[in-house]
Design brief:
heterodimer; A: alpha+beta; Uridine Diphospho-n-acetylenolpyruvylglucosamine Reductase, domain 3; Enolase-like, domain 1; 5-stranded antiparallel sheet; 4-stranded antiparallel sheet; 14 helices; 12 strands; 39% helix; B: 773 residues; alpha+beta; Aldehyde Oxidoreductase, domain 3; Aldehyde Oxidoreductase, domain 4; 3 domains; 19 helices; binds flavin-adenine dinucleotide
Amino acid sequence: MMPEFQIACPQNLADAITEASRLQGEVLFVNGGTDLILELRSGQKKADWLIDLSQVPELQSLPTLENGMLKLRSGVTFTRLSTDPLVRKHARCLAHAGEQMGSAQIRNRATLGGNIASASPAGDSLPALAALEAEVTIEGSEGARTLTVAEMLAAKEKTLKARELVTEILIPLAEQGIERRSTFTKIGSRTQVSIARLNLAAVMELEHGVIRKMRLAVGAIGKAPLRLYEFEKEWEGKAVKAESAGKIAGEIAGTLAEFLTKTVDQAIPGRHSQAYKRQAVQALAFDVVAELFPEQGLGQGGGGNGGR
Amino acid sequence: MAEDKGVKQLATPERQAAAAEQTLKYVGRNLPLHDAVAKATGKIQYTGDMNFPGMLQAKILFSPLAHARIKKIDASAALALPGVAAVFSHENTPQTLYNSQVWFAGQEARADERLFHDTVRFVGDRVAAVVATDKKIAAKALGLIKVEYEELPALFDPEEALTENAVEIHPGGSPFFEKEFGCGNPSETFKQAELIVEDRVETPKIHHAAMETHVCIAVPDHSGKITVYTPCQILYSVRLVVAEVLGLPYNKVRILKTPMGGSFGGKQEVTIEPLAAFFAQATGKPVKIEYNRQESIISTRTRTRTIGYVRTAVDQNGKILAREVKTIVDTGAYTSNGAIVSMAMGKKLFRLYRIENQVYRVQAVHTNTPVAGAARGYGSPQIHAITEINLDHVANRLGLDPVEFRLRNLVHPYDEDLSGGPSLGNARIIDCVEEGAKLFRWHERRTQAEAGRSTNGRFRRGVGMACATHSNGYFGAFQDFTTMTLRMLEDGSMILNSGIHELGCGTVTTMKQIIAEVLDINPDRIEAPEGDTETSPYDVGSQASRVTHICGAGALKAARKVKEIFRREASKILGCEPEDVVMRSEIVWSKHKPEEKMTYGEMVRLIQQKNRTEIIATETYQAADNPGSYGANFVEVEVDTLTGLVRVIDLLAVHDVGKAINPGFVKGQIYGGVQMGIGLALSEDLQIDPKSGKAKGDSFARYHLINAPDMPSVEVLLIEKGGDLGPFGAKSIGEIATCPTAPAVVNAVNHALGTNLTTLPLTPERILAALNE
Ligand SMILES: Cc1cc2nc3c(=O)[nH]c(=O)nc-3n(C[C@H](O)[C@H](O)[C@H](O)COP(=O)(O)OP(=O)(O)OC[C@H]3O[C@@H](n4cnc5c(N)ncnc54)[C@H](O)[C@@H]3O)c2cc1C
């Protein structure tokens, strides 16, 4: 049942920040409400005031490119993430996360800012943001600061303080002449409308057939997505020549699958879900690599839940 | 209206019947649900939408513990909260023991429920209730009630319930019900059998997942009468239990069936109505109880968890020589329908295959888990999962194709039930399987799936099927009849007065179509209000897959009687013999004077004026048969061997329904039944924690129904060969629709993987574990 609270509807960012520090009692932000409303109803969260961010234009405007960055506002919806041409071009894994998150109705309301602030271990945007090495701008009455997603999630309680806002998400673009490929995939209990039991995002940058950058983050096996640093290093600098791409892709998939199993074993030893996840996570490896090397036709046989 | 004058032909009964078949005007048509538009446009008033002046809201405090004695309840803080009208618990409510599933007066059943007990027996059992001016206050007050518990040892595993020192949940412990019946001499036959294949199959507790959660309103009046508005399945069951608990005469309890937002058996039993009725009686105010999803999941009814041990003996030719089926039926913390559903399961065993030597043994047990009860199929999905999975195992061991193996053993039309039940009637399961296999391209697909497997890729295809049977009413087990009053009004419109319940299956429209067919009247001109115990004649209720077969026959009988009366009375007006009265498209005339036509309404008025009578008939139809409804599902699946996720690609459902009064409704039932069946096979489970007894699957975030993206394309083939006593030959579909699905899916998965998975649901974890074996 919905408890009682008052609601403030600031019309610009400055007012939102002022309201947040001025209002008395428990003050919470609401954007899409797809997490918060449920938590209020169930009593997990209590609020005297909700500050509705959905009418703050600075948080709702469309993605733009600025200073070598893809700039997203925290109010961007998952539907927008999945369809926006800039996101699809520069941060495809985030667009894929947008497609595979929730249902159409949820995607229409749920925001990236809400997903980051909720910081659920299974949050679908988070591995994508981690793999893209995104930065988050946080603003409050004491000013603004910027953290990487990894920093922010590493210690959520300390970093995003009460009455502080996520305003922007900045994603560095690939450098000139470098081709970025990226994708995201997840495993839930069913094809759609399913919280991830495992999710994985991958970013690969190529320059003249050489892997310049490899970034992967796996979610739902810890509080925050885990970056696969060791694996990334192993592949950076390797050549992917057209003739041998299929073989390399196969090798990447194989080693990634093994690496992921190891990662799961280390992340959740003895957990009930370990037996399942250590094996299922391999599917993510194959799906992701198939998407990174689309010309190799590795996605044969159904492609799993892999980034459609 | 042109009359076919010139045509004069002596008609034989067969020819007449054949002609009638061809010229059916309303039966066999896809008319829409009578309230579909109102539902789709939000205009319908569900119980949750209804309000009464001065109405209070009740919220229930549910037990957080699986088994505990309530030492003390301190409600003083709750009572002090402004807006709280009363707090109820075992201390101030009737001690009457009742059983939630009795549907007729004098029915024997173990009565172990109470509005509130001083002992709680599962997480979700009722501890207390607050009745307040609104829900928020009631919820707040719940948090102020202090309860002291003395925890008792708890029991969650049905097989553990049968062990010697098991926790005693009710006096006498488990099993609280045991039965054995059968035919022939299975134990001797087993001794000589060439091949015996054994399995242990387990089906989970599931939630019905109707869109509308449980809700009802009770309204008291100055005379002490209580009126209950409830989306129920059996009005007279609600009246019985409410009257018993409140100590009221039956005529001081009035039950009104409200629009149904889905039931699937979940609202068949009497769960919240006696609470609301008592609160209304005690406070003198209307009281509404409306559960949220979690409350509906854990504290109403579930499907029984069932463990089956099955042994099947066959000869080399694939003839089933004998079978032994033992089940352990977990009814949860209270008895509910535990005994009856145990029997219902067993009876199906004797109605699908010709098995001359067979025995069924059941033990029903209590556990400290949510209470089981009626659930679409009433035990059939469980027992068919148990036996149909085993039969594929047998076929596999014999090296026989599962379709071929079944065809060698399936029952034939008009076979007898060897355990002594009613005749099977025009049982057309062989047609279902033969025609289904053809349409599905069974052999081709099986072969293809097997060929694809040799490549040992990540995704494996499998093709499976299963058969099932279900009942058509209670004939042969309990009294089954219905009484209906049908009237024609002065404008030719009609009212059917009966105790029907629309559950969303199309009952109201079905009755209209049947009456319309007999009287040649537009179905829109017939009103068929749902039941009201004060004004409707008696009906057994929407249960046992009886409504179309029995109530439909009742409507047919009443319509025929009205037609007879109408023609008799009209003949007096028209000056002819009753046989000469022609009724067509709401126009009536004497065949001798075709130029003198009038509407049915004009005729009714003349009958009132001149004959001083009305066109009304009250007829009782007594069930006289209980044929089997039959169905077979053919399924193709794809299993991801890395994730253990199963995709059902394609499904064909073939059903022997006798005659589809409204094929659209029949298909609707099948689509929904398939959706529930796939859920039972793959994902639905309350997931009771073996330590705390808490249901992990107590919300839709963690209880996974099959949703639209995961639904396969479902093709339906109907076998319509009539031959039994239902209206126009109609048999049931609502329950049988879900019965073959789960085992067909499981068989397909086992085919894909070469496994013998037998514990439902086949979760990704279970599939991977089996692959790793
Ligand atoms: C049916 C359903 C399916 C779902 N499926 C998925 C899924 O597949 N994957 C997934 O990741 N999630 C899923 N979710 C969860 C949810 O939709 C997401 O986490 C969503 O991104 C939350 O965004 P929101 O705008 O609705 O946040 P809200 O509910 O408005 O807010 C969530 C939290 O974030 C805070 N907040 C919101 N915006 C800001 C901001 N700008 N700055 C600071 N704090 C803020 C709020 O105070 C609140 O604590 C699902 C939810 C539902 C109901």
